[in-house]
From TrEMBL, chain A:
Gene3D superfamilies tied to this protein: 3.10.20.30, [2Fe-2S]-binding domain
Protein name: Carbon monoxide dehydrogenase small chain
Pathway of action: Alkaloid degradation; nicotine degradation
E.C. designation(s): 1.2.7.4
Enzyme type, top EC level: oxidoreductase
Domain of life the protein comes from: Bacteria
Entries under InterPro entries matching the protein: 2Fe-2S-bd, 2Fe-2S-bd_dom_sf, 2Fe-2S_ferredoxin-like_sf, 2Fe-2S_ferredoxin-type, 2Fe2S_fd_BS, Beta-grasp_dom_sf, Diverse_Oxidoreductases
GO MF annotations, alphabetized: 2 iron, 2 sulfur cluster binding; anaerobic carbon-monoxide dehydrogenase activity; metal ion binding
Cytoplasm listed as a keyword: no
Pfam families assigned to the protein according to its UniProt record, in alphabetical order: Fer2, Fer2_2
From TrEMBL, chain B:
Region Disordered, residue ranges: 1-26
Any one Pfam family match given in the protein's UniProt record, by short name: MoCoBD_2
Annotated Gene3D superfamilies: Aldehyde oxidase/xanthine dehydrogenase, a/b hammerhead, Aldehyde oxidase/xanthine dehydrogenase, molybdopterin binding domain
EC id: 1.2.7.4
Gene Ontology MF annotations: anaerobic carbon-monoxide dehydrogenase activity; iron ion binding
Origin organism lineage: Bacteria, Bacillati, Actinomycetota, Actinomycetes, Kitasatosporales
Coiled-coil annotated spans: none
Domain of life from the UniProt record: Bacteria
Keywords assigned: Molybdenum, Oxidoreductase
InterPro entries tied to this protein: Ald_Oxase/Xan_DH_a/b, Ald_Oxase/Xan_DH_a/b_sf, Ald_Oxase/xanthine_DH-like, AldOxase/xan_DH_MoCoBD1, AldOxase/xan_DH_MoCoBD2, AldOxase/xan_DH_Mopterin-bd_sf
Signal sequence annotation: none
PANTHER family reported in the protein's UniProt record: ALDEHYDE OXIDASE 1-RELATED, XANTHINE DEHYDROGENASE
Name of the molecule in the record: Carbon monoxide dehydrogenase large chain
Top EC class for this record: oxidoreductase
From TrEMBL, chain C:
A UniProt-annotated Pfam family: FAD_binding_5
Organism from which the protein derives: Streptomyces lavendulae subsp. lavendulae
Presence of the UniProt keyword Flavoprotein in the record: yes
EC number: 1.2.7.4
Record keyword Flavoprotein present: yes
Keywords: FAD, Flavoprotein, Oxidoreductase
Single annotated GO MF: FAD binding
InterPro entries for the chain: CO_DH_flav_C (IPR005107), CO_DH_flav_C_dom_sf (IPR036683), Diverse_Substr_Oxidored (IPR051312), FAD-bd_PCMH (IPR016166), FAD-bd_PCMH-like_sf (IPR036318), FAD-bd_PCMH_sub1 (IPR016167), FAD-bd_PCMH_sub2 (IPR016169), Mopterin_DH_FAD-bd (IPR002346)
Protein's name according to its UniProt entry: Carbon monoxide dehydrogenase medium chain
Transmembrane regions listed in the UniProt entry: none
Amino acid sequence: MDLNLNLNLNVNGRPERFAAQPNELLVERLRDGLGLTGTKVGCDTGQCGTCVVRLDGRSVKSCLVLTASAAGSEVTTIEGVAERGGELTGLQEALRQEHGTQCGFCTPGMVMALGELVENTAGGGAPTEPEIREWLTGNLCRCTGYHSVVRGVQRACAPAVEAGAAGREG
Amino acid sequence: MTAVTGETAVTGGTTAVDGATAADTAAVPDTVAVPDATAGPDAAPLRDAIAVEDATAVEDATAVQDAPPAAADVPDEHAVLGRPMDAREDPQLLRGEATYVADIDLPGTAHMAILGSPVAHAKLLSIDTKAAEQMPGVLKVATAADFTDVMPLPCIWIPGGVESHFPPHPYGLPGARPVLTGDAVRHVGDPIAVVVAETPRQAAAALAAISVEYEPLPVVTRADAALAEGAPQLHEAVPGNLNAYWTCGDKDRTDAAIAAAEVTVELDLVNQRTINSPIEPRGAVGSYDASTGEYTLYASTQGPHNHRFLLSALVLGIPFNKLRVIAPTVGGSFGTKGYLYPDMALVLLLSKALGRPVKWVDTRTGLMNSTVQGRDHRQHVTLAGTRDGRITAVRCTSYANLGAYPSTIGPGVATALMGRSITGMYAIDAAFCEVYAAFTNTVSLGAQRGSGRAEAAFLMERLVDRYAGEIGMDPAEVRRRNLVPKEAFPYDNGLGWTYDSGNYRPNFDRAIELSGYADMSARKAEARTRGKRLGVGIATYVAICGVGPSTRMSKEGMLGGTWESANIRVHPTGEVTVTVGSASTGQSHHTVFAMVAADELGIDPDRVQVYEGDTLKAPYGQGTYGSRSYSMAAPAVALTARKIKAKLIKAGAVFLGVPEDKVVYRGGAVHEDGNPENTKSFADLAMAMWYGWGLPPEIEPALDETTHFDPPDFNYPFGTHVAVVEVDELTGETEVVAYTAVDDAGNVGNPKIVHGQIEGSIVHGLGQALMEAAEYDENGILISSDLNHYALPRAADVPFFSLDRTVTPSPHNPLGAKGAGEIATVPPAAAVVNAVVDALSDLGVRHIDMPLTPEKVWRRLQGETQ
Amino acid sequence: MILTEFDYVRPLGLDRALDLLAGPGARVLAGGQSLLPGLRAGTERAGLLVDVRHLDELRGISAADGTLRIGALTTLAELAAHPLVRERAPELAAAARANGDPQVRNLGTAGGNLADRGRPTDLPVAALAAGAEVELAGPGGRTRTGVEEFTAGGVPAGSVLTALLVPAAGPAAAFEKAADRATRYPLCAAAVRITADGPRIAVTGATPRALRLRGVEDRLRGGPYTTEAVLAAFRAEPRELFVPGRGTSAEYLGHLAGVLTARALARAARITA
C-alpha cells in the first residue's frame, strides 16, 4: 500500500509541496524534509517544548502535530522569525540583553512560544510575572533556571519608551 | 595485589599509553589527612612560574557591585574583566542558527539505532539478527561478535589509594564496559546490537525485528543490597560487587571524639539518584575517509581531546593522529557529556565498515537508560559536639551506587569528591568518611552538576540543623561558631583538601542579612493565618573546583593529566584568535575567553575570536567539567596573553629604538616611557611582527604563543544559601517562596554569565529537593524513564532569587578565579530540606527524604514517622 | 517519530467522517494532544486516522435557552478565554485554563479532553459539576447524553462527540487542581457548582474515573462548606472509592480530593456572597 500523501504547507512564507507518510510528524518534515533544524527535538513525549513552532499563528509543539494534519496551514519556524545573521526581533533582543539563553537548545522553542505571549499582550497590559512563568510551562530549560527568560519577556513587554531608555546592560 | 583490576598491570605494547601510571597510582598509600596530599614536588616552582601578583592578596570579602561597562574607546588593561558583558553567542542561539550534533547532515549519512536491553540482568543466550537484516533500508546489523577486536571503554578515575576492582581491559587498565555486550546484560538499556539503515525510521523499525534470548538473573538495584551475602554478581572480576572500600580522615580520632562527646546526633540519609537531563539528548556522527584513513567524530561532548585520546588509543586501537573529534554546539551537559559512551566508538566503526557517515541521535528515553546518572548515596552520618555549639567530630558511612559498569570517572566522583568534602565551611577537629562503592543493575553513575560536593553538603548541613535542634541553639548561630576562621587559610580540612582561600564570616552574614532571617518568626506567624507553615533553611558549602593539579589528581586516582591549554595568535591586521582545549556546553566561553585576552592585551574584545571544541584546531585540554573552565582555561589564556605582551615589549624596544626597560605597554600599544609620541599601535605591532623585518635573531617573527596551565592546587569556592518555604498544612505541598544565595567564586570574569550559572544551578538543586528521582522497580526497570515520569523544575516552580557575591580570590591561578558553573547546585537541596524540617519541627519531624513530595510531607504532618 | 503505520483521511464533512469511522481500526483525530503521544509511545493503535480538526461545524460557542453550546473542536485555549464561558461556566473555563501548557491548549480540544480515556483530564469534572450533556453524532443521527453516563462509557464506536451542552447557571462554580509535576495532567482535580438544590461535586484522579460524589453532596447540602465539614464528608465515603495513582496512595488522593473540593466550594461560595 502506498501510504504517501501529497501535501502543501506554507513554511515561513514559502509554499512547499512534498509527499509524506501519514505518520510523519510536523517536526520531522521541518527538520529532515525541509532542513529547518532550528526546531529541535528534546523528548519523545511532548514535554520539552524545544520543537515549538507557530501553526496558523498559534504556538504548538510540532512533535504533536501530523504533517498531514498541518497541510494547508501556515507554519512559522525560528528561521522565519529573523533572517540568518539578521536583526533580532524585540523579544529576541530583550532575551539577549537578559542573557536568556545559555546552551541555546531550548531557545528556539522558547522564542516561538513566547512570541505568541508577547503578541497577545501587545497593546494591552504587560503580562505579570506569574503569567509569564505559567506561559513557560511547556518549555523546559535546564540551564537558566528560567529567571533570565522571564526578565527578558518583562523587558520585551515593557512600554516602548521605557525599553528604549533601559538600553543595553553592558 | 593492590591492582586496579584482577588482571596484571599494563603490558607495554603498541600504544603510547604508559600503563605504569595505573599501577603506580593504585599503589600510592592512602592519603588520609596528610598534608602532603597536596601537589607534587614540582608544585612550588610551578607556583612561582605563574604570575600571581594580582591574586595573592586575599582581601576582605565584601559584597560586590559589578562595575558598569567600559566606556573608553581604547580599553585600558584590566578594563574588561569583571564587567557584565552580553554574551556574543546569544544572537546565534536566539535565531536558532547554532549547529548541534543532531543538526549535522553529512552527504550520504546512514542512521544508527541501538538495541538496549529491556531487562536489567540476564545471560545472553542468543541474538538473531536475520530478520532485521532483511528489513527495508537496513545496511548493517551488528552485535558484540562483530567487534571482537575493539577494546572495552576504560575507566580513568578510580578510587585513589585503595584496592579496587574493575572489569578487565587488555592494557591492564580498569575497564568500564564493552561497546556492545555479548555475554550478559547488566542494566536496562545495556547496548546489545545496532542497526544502520538509510533513515532513522528504518533503523528504529529494524530494532524490533532483532530477537534476543535471555536467561534471567536476579537483580539488585541498591548499593547496600549489592554488597550483602548472596547478592547477584555483576562482574567476574569484581567479587561481591565491591568496586572499592575507600576512606579519608582519621577514624580512631573521630570515633573517640564521638564516644566522648557531650552531644551526638545521627541521621540515615538517602541522597537519591537523579538524572541530569540536559535538554539536548546525546548524539554522535562518525565519518571515516578511506582515502586518508582518517576518522572524524562529531559528538555532544564536554571533552573532545580526552575523548580523542581514549577512543583512539584505548578503545579502537588506531593511531591518535587518525582521529579528529569535533564538539559542535552542545545543548547542556551538567556532567553527562564528559563520559565515553559506546555510541561514539560504534559510529566510527560502522562508518568504516559501510564507507558512509553514520549518525546516531539519542531519544529522551534512551538517554535516561544509558547516559550517566547522579548522586545515589545511602548514608549513616554522625555529628558530635559540645552543648555550647562547638562541632567536634563528623563521621559518614556511605554506600555509593556506581551502576552496572563504572563510568569514565564515576568511581572518583563517588569517593573523593564526596568524602573529602564533608566538613564544608566548618573547622572540625576530627572527621572520617568511608565509602563502599558497589555495582548494581542500574545505569552507570557519573557526575551531576555539583557532583560529590552536593552529597557532602547535604549530609553536613542536615547534621548541623539536627545538632542545633538538639542543643536548642539557632542554626545560624551554630554555623557562625564553627566557620573556619579567616586567619586559618590555607586550611587543611583533615580529609585531604587544603582550602586555598576563604573569608566565610562576611559571606555567611551577608546571606543571613539579605534573607531577612531575623524577621522569620513574624513571617511564620503570618503564614499560619493562611494555612501555611513557613520554614527557613540555611546551607553553606565549600565546593572543590579547578581540577586541576595533575600530580595531585593522580594521587586521587585520576589516570590522566588534568591541565589545560590556550593558544593566542595575533593576525597581521591586529585581530586575535584564541583557541582553548576546553569546550563550552552553554557557558558562553567565546565571550569570556575573548574578555580575558582583551583584558590582558588591552584591546577591544570584539577584535578577539575564540575557537574551541575541534581537536584539529584547538590546543590540548581536558574539557569542561567541575566548573574548571574559568579557573583552568581562562588562566591559560591570560598567561598566553602575557607572553604575547612580553614579546611585544621586547620587539617594541626594537621598533621604538629604545631600551626594553623604557618600553611601556598600555592600551594595546607600546610607547617610550616619558615620550608618548614615540608609540606603535597594536595593529602596527601585529603587522610588523608578521613582516618580521628588522628583528634581531633572538626575537622570532609572528605572534603565536601557547600555554599549558597546571595549577599548584585546586580552588575552593564557597557560599551560603537560605531557602524559605511554605508548606501547605492540608496538602503537604512545598513551595519555595524566597531563596537567597551569596556565593564566592573568587574574581569573576563576566558577572552576567556567572549570574546565569548561579540561577540555573540553584534551580537544578531545587529539582532534587522537590521532585527529581530516578526510580527503579524491583526488576531493575527505570520507572522514571521519560519526561512524563521524571519531573524537571518549570518556570512557575521557582520565585526570583536574591543573589549576591563575595569575592575572595584564589591564589592558585593568575586570575584569582574559582569555579562558578556548578557551585550553586551544591547547597539548595540541603537548604530546602532544612527549611521544610524547620516548618515541621514542632511536630517532632527531624528529617524527610528527598524528593519532598506532597504526600511524604503530608504524612509527616499527620504525625507519621519516616 | 511514530513507528506504527496508519492511513490518514481528512473528511470534508461530518457525514463523511462518520462513514469512515465505521471501518475497522478507524480513530478520530482532533487536536491530537493525547492521541499522538499515545501513538508515539505505542500505547495507542489506529488503522485509519479520521482528521476532523478542520470541520467548522464542530466549532463555535453559543448561548441559547440558558445553555452554552460548545463545539467539540473548541480548543482549550478558546474555552479558557471565552467571555461567555468565563461568566456562565467558570469551572469549565478554569479547567480548560489549567490544562497542560499553552501549546497543548492551542491544539487540544474540548471534545478530546472529555473523551480521553487514558488518564484523568481536566474538563470531565467541570462538566459533571455543571450538570452538562454531550452531543454525539453516530450512524443513527445525533443523540444527547448526560456527562455522567458519558464519562462511564466514553464515545461509542463509530461516533463523534460534536458538542458539550452546559447549563449556564452563573458564577457560583469553581475548579481546583493538583497537577502531576511531570505531565501537568491532574494528579487530582475537583469541580463544584453551587445550585439551588445544593452543591454538585465531581472529582478525578483520586477515583477510577471522573465521578460525581453524590454522597458528599448530600452531606454538605445546606452548608456550611467549611474545610472541616468537607473533609468529614469525604472521610465518610467508602474507602474503596479512592484509588492510588502516579506513585501516590489512595489515602492521600482521597484526602486531597476533599481539600481541593473544600477550596473550590469556598471560592464558589465567595463568588455568590
